Here is the input.
Amino acid sequence: MRLEVCEILVTKNHLHKHPLEVIYKSQTFTSSPGSSVKLFCQVYYDPKQCDGVHAVWSHLEPAFELTDPEKYLTIVNETVLEDNRRHRQVLTEILDLTLKDEGLYQCQATGECRRAQTVMGRLMIVFVK
Here is the structure.
């Protein structure tokens, strides 16, 4: 599997030049224990070029996907654009923050785009104080 890291600035002329894109602004959150944080990213892909697209937020170091439904609430919405590309929105809320939730987070999209491809967005930082 080939790993590509893309930090994409959102401009009208730049969108849709790649078969799989992850787009969002880098942010830093400082929240209190017991509160929650919402992480949002957008994934654009061409279904003619990419199959089986999986998009998810991940914690880095230690690396794991935010998939435990007791800890993370994820909402995914996908629409078809005029050019038949797909626009997937992934919102993950980290519930009941603890010190263990501090760290770096990143949205990742994986798909079979002529070859296995993983695209990652910018880093999000969460502090719990």
About this structure: The two ends are 38 Å apart (CA to CA). The CA atoms of residues 18 and 43 lie 11 Å apart.
